[in-house]
Every structure is written in structure tokens, then in C-alpha cells.
């Protein structure tokens, strides 16, 4: 089987001690193995595999852009997220919305903006940092001046200030939880829209670094287990706060490198947990920046320190629903828009893991546009947005 | 990092499974009356969701969902804080426990009506039992327990939830909050952790909790020594268990003057000599050898070469998926000790060829 895969795959060895962890791991490997075998038998007669079913995914995304089925009711307070996931997926697939469609998304997001600042999970709801991050990113991805001008930056700044806690961390919303996601979301929207001030983020980096655990990754708050999503937020937040020197890069690198699964090729979110397609982004996005950091620290050329080929194989062979379109967590799971966005984003990271070059597994047409690993916004959209808000200039902070 | 990841698993988009039932949707009774048909709500004008003219990411709400939220929007608009508003909010939560606006409003009603917070605690316990992985429910519990200033049932409650899934991130995070916020709750925590580790020695959340407990106790050398032995025992049971190895590295952060490193080094060398080739063992050996070397004497040159050999073994045999990582570790050692000539070079393709 291994001869058609980029690297030989080693299975989990339970050393004759079966626990819940080992039995679920072995189950997943069985399913993945079947798909690998199927792929290898195809590869014998067709060297153009694996294929990214772009057209099917595009159809899936476009369908979900307008109406989502009833089982999305649980995301009724995350509707700007839905816009962001879909816009980012389309941007990676190099697919542009029509002028009317863009304007429709903009007008919806503008309806989600709260009069006191920030964005809400849907119209008539209260403002929350997570949909604020999602809405701002979605508007940047749309990239028209109509989209940019929706954001009320004065109010956004007020909203961020209202969530700041004395120790430099942030709440997600009024009475809401405070964790490293909140600092990341706040820092991202502040940088994107050019309203970042040192006062707003005073001692935030000191709080974030307390979330790095003995394992090397970051937890949601100090003391809690290292986790892929929070590690992405913590690491990226430190970059946005220009405080990456605080990070123990050596232990972070060891932890994140070890989250790539020896058999599946995808990433797990925590030690001894199962692979999940979405960590193709959360975990893999750490590497390009980490390589750059080490390159400048150590004054030598650095390479990509994870197996980007095996990651692409996991995504292409195990995470696509060819029939309905859309991408998934792991074999046997149904597609959803969250996984569609982050699996594609992870694939983009993997395809662009060599500086000034690409490394595409399978057909050359599998190539996706490049995403920025800190913001997770497609590069050309990000550049345009940063440029727009740079020209817009700073807001008047005197009345805050 | 987003709410989706934490919300209950989305069900299949395809409607091919006819028996899809959702306990939150049928409420277990067929005589459910829509709010718009309830006489006691006649005085309230429902407020439809203002999606604007654009039709994007519109969710095909069930009739019941729209009905409840139309009335919820109405009471939020009028600011009504009443018994019936509380019941409405309860229904809204059942339909979508991830709607933080509803939770914010619930808290405001509860405070306004001076509802007995013990009843709220019972209520939130039931909701969490049904929706165990959701940010809002745990935050609400935190708000209530903070106001009650009474954590007496919290360890037992989180233990119950962890019994359903011993790696539930929210439950662990909440448990740590309880322990750090209120005093005297940490006493039996190590036993609790020990139980979980014996149920599943690979449960990394339990190992992390162990570290949390030890770290909070400001451990002296004896405590760390005990932990070291504990971890050695667990590694001997399962030598490929990353959780235990990571914990071991965590203990090394307490080391002063290299005393712990010597003990770990002895342990690792014995394991290696017995023929064990766990990737975490080799990785640990490499780091220890690196620390150990302080001159360019012949013996040390051999040590460095051994570390390079381990990197090469990992890259080609034991851990091929991390080949480029091991190439990096190997090149670090080469650079640090200026050893250019050796037999353990790891060649990596740059993907271009």
C-alpha cells in the first residue's frame, strides 16, 4: 500500500493495553486504511490522483450561501461565521461571487452590526467577539469599498474596550467567558481595521503566554490542556501583539509536530485524541510562521517542519464528500461548512509550504489560492483590506 | 476556536435518514402550543427576524423555532422581565443552547425577579447534562456559582459530566476554575486524577490535571521526586504513551542543577538498552544528550554522534512522518557542536524534486 503514499504510514501500537483512547484510535485507522487501499488501487492505473473535487465543493458552498437546512439552527447565533467560512472557502477555490451576491452578504452583515459596536451572531442579537471576528474577516474577503465601509471603527474600538479585563485578557461578550480566543479575535480585528492601540492590549501578551502549557501547546486559559484551536489563537495573538519572543518555540514545535498522526497524516487537536480535518488548518498554520521565526533567529535557511504531503493525502483521500461536495472531519462524518472552510484552508497551507513555490499532491489543478496563516484570509484579499484601512488612517481616540 | 467546533455535532445535511429525531425539537409531547396561539401571550406583538432584503445564510427554521424566537425578540425589545418571559427563555434555550443573547437575558431576568439561585443551579445542571460541550452553559453555571459563592456541589457535578466523556474540555476548564476560585477543593484532586489515569492511562486531560494540581501545590523536591517515580511506573506500563512522556518533560521544568535530568537519563538509558524504541523515548534521549554535553572531549563527541544517530533512526525507521522535524533537530545539533562529518545525515527533499 505504502508505495503510492508520500511516506510510509505506521499504525498505532497499543502495546497490549486497551483503553478507550486506543480502541477509538484503532477504529479510525481501520476506516482510513480502507480509503488508502482504495486510493492505491486507483493510483496503479491513474497517476493523476488524488483529485480535489473543486466543482462539487463549489456547488456545496454556493448552495449553503443562501439557505441552510434546519439542522443549522444550532448555528443561528453564528451566522457571520457561516458567511466567513463560505467566503474564505470560495476565495481559496478562486471563485468570485457576483456583484449582487457580494452586496447581499454585505447588507446582511451590516444588519448584524450592533448599534453600540461589534457584530452579533445574527440580526437582533447582542454583540459578541467571535462573530465580530468572523464578520470583519468576511467583509475583508468580499473586499469592496461597500464592504469595508460597513465597519464602524469608532464603535468597534469602544466595543473592544468594553470587553477588556484588567489583566489584559478579554471577555467574548457581556457576562461572557474569557479565554485566548477572545484576545486573538480582538487583536485580529484591531490590526485588520487599523484601530490597534498599545493601551487596548496592555499586558495582553503576558496573559496569553500563561496559556502555554508544559506540553508546549496553548490551552484556553492558564492551566488547561494544550489544544490545537487555542494554540493557533495563542501563537497568532502573540504575533499580532508583537510579542512572539515570549513564546517557548522549541516546546511548541515539538508539541505541534507530534500532533501529526503517524498513520492518517492529518492532525489531532490534543495529545492522544483523534485526527480531525479542521486541525489541518489550526495546527499546520503554525509551521510556516514558526519556520520563518527560526530562520531569522538562527540565520539559516529553514524548511517546512511537518509532512505537508501526508497532510494533503489525508485531506484529499479521507476528507472529501465527492457526492454532496463539502469537506469533513474524518471518514464517516457528514460535511458541514465549518469543516469545508478549515479543511480547505489547511490544504492551502500544505500546498504553499515551500517559500515562493508550491507543492501540490495529485493533479496540478488541485492548487488552491494561498491563505494567510495568521488571519486565515486569502492573501490577495488580506493585502487589499490592510491597504484600505491603512489609507483610512487611525480613528480619533481622544473621545474614548 | 469557534462555537461550531464546540456545539453538538451537526447532523447529516442529507435528508436520507428518515428516523432523524432531535429530543430538543419534539419536547416529548404532541400537544405543544405555539406562542402565537397562547391566550396569555395575546398582548405581545411578535417581532420577526430582520434579515434585511438579502437572502444569505438563511436557516430553514422549524415553525416552532421561528415562533419562539419571534416572541423572544419581542420581550427583549420591550424589556419585559417576568415569570412568563423566563419560561419563554427556557424554551428558546432548549431550541438553541448556543444562543448567548438568550443566556444574557436569562441572567438579567433571574436577577431582576430575584429567583432563588439554587433553582437556577438545578436548572443549569440539567441543561449541561444534555448539552455537555457548549461555552454558554458552562459560563452560565460559573456566573450562578459565583453569585451563590458556594462550590460545594461542583466537584461532584463535574465528575459526573467527566464520567460521560473523560476528555470534555469545557468540564475540565470549569473544574479548574472552581478549584482556583474557592479554597480547600484541591485536597482529593490527585486521587480523582489517579482514578481517571487508571481507567485510561492515555487520557491526556487527566495528565494535564495532574500537572495543574502539582503545580498549584508549589511542590518541593520530594513531591517532584514522587511524581517522577509515578511517571516512570506509568511509562513502563506503556512506553509509547505520549501523555506520560510529556508529563515527564513537564516535571523536568522543576529541575535545578540537572538532578532530575540525571534520573531521567538513567531511566531512559535502561529502557533503550532493553531494546525499547518508543519515539518519545528516543526524543527524550536526544534532548538529554544535548543538555549533557559540555565539552568537545572524545567521550562527548561520541554522545553527540549518538544523538545524531537517534535522529536518523527516527527519521528513517521509527518516526518517518516527522522526518523533516528530525532533520531540523539533527541540524541543530550539528551546528551547535560543529560536527559536519558523520554517518547520520538526514536528507530531506524540498518537495521540488
Can you walk through the features of this model?
The complex is a heterodimer of chains A (400) and B (353). Chain A has 400 residues and is an all-alpha fold. Chain A has a domain at 261-368. Helices cover 48% and strands 0% of the residues of chain A. Chain A contains 16 helices and one strand. In chain A, helix 3 runs parallel beside helix 15 (337-351) and helix 5 (129-142) runs parallel beside helix 8. In chain A, 59% of the residues are buried. Chain B has four domains: 34-113, no CATH class; 116-185, no CATH class; 187-199 and 212-274, no CATH class; 289-344, no CATH class. Helix content of chain B is 62%, strand content 1%. Chain B has helices spanning 3-6, 23-26, 63-78, 83-95, 100-113, 117-130, 135-148, 154-164, 169-181, 189-199, 204-216, 221-237, 242-252, 259-273, 279-292, 298-318, 323-337, and one strand spanning 58-59. Chain B starts with a helix and ends in a 16-residue tail after the last helix. Chain A: One of its GO terms (biological process) is lipid metabolic process. Chain A: InterPro entries: FTB, PGGT1B-like, Prenyltrans, Terpenoid_cyclase/PrenylTrfase. Chain A: Residues 52-377 form the Prenyltransferase alpha-alpha toroid domain. Chain A: Belongs to the protein prenyltransferase subunit beta family.
Q: How many domain units of chain B?
A: 4
Number of strands of chain A: 1
| Euclidean distance between termini CA atoms of chain A | 63 Å
The interface involving the most residues is between:
A-B, 112 and 94 residues
Rounded to an integer in angstroms, the radius of gyration calculated over CA atoms of chain A is: 21 Å
Percentage of β-strand residues of chain A: under 5%
Topology of chain B as a string of helices (H) and strands (E): HHEHHHHHHHHHHHHHHH
Q: What summary fits the major beta sheet of chain B? A: none
- Rg of chain B, rounded, reads 29 Å
Runs of chain A in which pLDDT lies below 50 for 5 or more consecutive residues are none
Family (chain A): Belongs to the protein prenyltransferase subunit beta family.
Domain Prenyltransferase alpha-alpha toroid (chain A): 52-377
Subunit structure (chain A): Heterodimer of an alpha and a beta subunit. Heterodimer of FNTA and FNTB.
Keywords (chain A): Lipid metabolism, Metal-binding, Phosphoprotein, Prenyltransferase, Repeat, Transferase, Zinc
Amino acid at each position: 500500500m505504502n508505495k503510492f503514499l508520500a511516506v510510509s504510514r505506521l499504525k498505532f501500537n497499543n502495546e497490549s493495553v486497551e483503553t478507550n483512547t486506543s480502541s477509538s484510535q484503532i477504529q479510525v485507522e481501520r476506516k482510513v486504511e480502507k480509503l488508502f487501499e482504495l486510493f492505491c488501487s486507483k493510483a496503479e492505473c491513474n497517476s493523476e490522483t488524488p483529485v480535489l473535487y473543486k466543482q462539487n465543493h463549489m456547488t456545496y458552498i454556493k448552495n449553503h450561501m443562501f439557505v441552510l437546512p434546519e439542522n443549522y439552527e444550532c448555528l443561528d447565533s453564528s451566522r457571520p461565521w457561516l458567511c466567513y467560512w463560505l467566503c474564505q472557502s470560495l476565495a481559496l477555490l478562486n471563485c468570485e461571487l457576483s456583484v449582487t451576491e457580494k452586496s447581499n452578504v454585505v447588507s446582511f452583515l451590516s444588519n448584524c452590526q450592533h448599534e453600540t459596536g461589534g457584530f452579533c451572531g445574527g440580526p437582533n442579537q447582542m454583540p459578541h467577539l467571535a462573530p465580530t471576528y468572523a464578520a470583519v474577516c468576511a467583509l475583508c474577503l468580499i473586499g469592496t469599498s461597500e464592504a469595508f465601509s460597513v465597519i464602524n471603527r469608532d464603535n468597534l474600538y469602544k466595543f473592544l474596550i468594553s470587553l477588556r479585563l484588567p489583566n489584559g485578557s478579554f471577555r467574548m461578550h457581556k457576562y461572557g467567558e474569557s479565554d485566548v480566543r477572545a484576545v486573538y479575535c480582538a487583536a485580529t480585528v484591531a490590526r485588520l481595521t487599523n484601530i490597534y492601540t498599545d493601551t487596548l492590549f496592555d499586558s495582553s501578551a503576558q496573559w496569553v503566554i500563561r496559556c502555554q502549557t508544559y506540553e508546549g501547546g496553548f490551552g484556553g486559559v492558564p492551566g488547561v490542556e494544550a489544544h490545537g484551536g487555542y494554540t493557533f489563537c495563542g501563537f497568532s495573538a502573540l504575533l499580532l501583539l508583537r510579542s512572539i519572543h515570549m513564546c517557548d518555540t522549541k516546546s511548541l514545535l515539538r508539541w505541534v509536530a507530534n500532533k501529526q498522526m503517524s498513520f492518517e497524516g492529518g492532525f489531532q487537536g490534543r495529545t492522544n485524541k483523534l485526527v480531525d480535518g479542521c486541525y489541518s488548518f489550526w495546527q499546520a498554520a503554525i509551521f510556516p510562521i514558526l519556520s520563518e521565526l527560526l530562520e531569522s533567529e538562527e540565520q539559516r535557511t529553514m524548511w517546512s517542519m511537518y509532512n505537508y504531503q501526508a497532510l494533503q493525502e489525508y485531506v484529499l483521500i479521507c476528507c472529501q464528500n465527492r457526492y454532496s461536495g463539502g469537506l469533513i472531519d474524518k471518514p464517516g462524518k457528514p460535511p458541514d461548512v465549518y469543516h469545508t472552510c478549515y479543511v480547505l484552508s489547511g490544504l492551502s497551507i500544505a500546498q504553499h509550504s515551500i517559500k515562493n513555490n508550491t507543492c501540490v499532491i495529485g493533479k496540478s489543478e488541485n492548487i488552491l489560492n494561498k491563505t494567510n496563516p495568521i488571519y486565515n484570509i486569502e492573501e490577495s484579499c488580506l493585502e487589499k483590506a490592510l491597504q484600505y484601512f491603512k489609507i483610512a488612517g487611525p480613528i480619533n481616540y481622544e473621545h474614548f | 476556536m469557534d462555537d461550531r467546533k464546540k456545539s453538538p455535532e451537526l447532523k447529516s445535511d442529507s435528508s436520507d435518514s428518515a428516523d432523524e429525531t432531535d429530543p430538543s425539537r419534539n419536547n416529548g409531547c404532541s400537544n405543544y402550543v405555539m406562542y402565537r396561539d397562547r391566550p396569555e401571550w395575546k398582548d405581545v406583538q411578535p417581532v420577526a427576524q430582520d434579515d434585511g432584503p438579502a437572502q444569505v445564510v438563511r436557516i430553514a427554521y422549524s415553525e416552532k423555532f421561528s415562533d419562539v424566537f419571534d416572541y423572544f425578540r419581542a420581550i427583549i425589545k420591550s424589556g419585559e422581565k417576568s415569570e412568563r418571559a423566563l419560561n419563554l427563555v427556557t424554551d428558546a434555550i432548549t431550541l438553541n443552547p448556543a444562543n448567548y443573547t438568550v443566556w444574557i437575558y436569562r441572567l438579567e431576568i433571574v436577577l431582576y425577579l430575584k429567583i432563588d439561585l439554587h433553582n437556577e443551579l438545578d436548572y443549569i445542571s440539567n441543561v449541561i447534562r444534555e448539552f455537555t460541550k457548549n461555552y454558554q452553559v458552562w459560563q452560565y453555571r460559573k456566573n450562578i456559582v459565583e453569585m451563590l459563592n458556594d462550590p460545594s456541589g461542583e466537584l461532584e457535578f463535574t465528575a459526573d459530566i467527566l464520567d460521560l466523556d473523560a476528555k470534555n474540555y469545557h468540564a475540565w476548564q470549569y473544574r479548574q476554575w472552581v478549584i482556583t476560585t474557592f479554597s480547600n477543593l484541591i485536597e482529593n484532586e490527585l486521587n480523582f486524577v489517579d482514578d481517571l489515569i487508571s481507567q485510561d492511562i492515555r487520557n491526556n486531560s487527566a495528565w494535564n490535571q495532574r500537572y495543574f494540581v502539582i503545580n498549584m501545590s508549589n511542590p518541593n523536591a520530594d513531591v517532584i521526586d514522587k511524581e517522577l517515580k509515578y511517571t516512570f511506573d506509568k511509562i513502563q506500563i506503556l512506553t509509547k504513551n505520549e501523555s506520560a512522556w510529556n508529563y515527564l518533560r513537564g516535571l523536568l521544568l522543576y529541575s535545578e542543577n540537572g538532578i532530575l535530568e540525571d534520573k531521567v537519563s538513567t531511566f531512559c538509558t535502561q529502557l533503550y538498552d532493553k531494546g525499547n524504541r518508543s519515539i518519545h523515548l528516543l526524543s527524550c534521549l536526544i534532548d538529554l544528550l544535548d543538555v549533557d554535553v559540555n565539552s568537545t572531549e572524545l567521550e562527548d563527541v561520541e554522545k553527540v554522534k549518538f544523538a545524531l544517530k537517534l535522529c536518523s533512526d527516527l527519521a528513517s525507521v521509527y518516526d518517518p512522518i516527522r522526518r523533516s522535524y528530525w532533520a531540523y533537530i539533527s541540524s541543530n545539533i550539528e551546528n551547535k557542536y560543529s560536527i559536519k562529518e558523520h554517518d547520520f545525515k538526514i536528507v530531506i527533499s524540498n518537495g521540488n524534486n
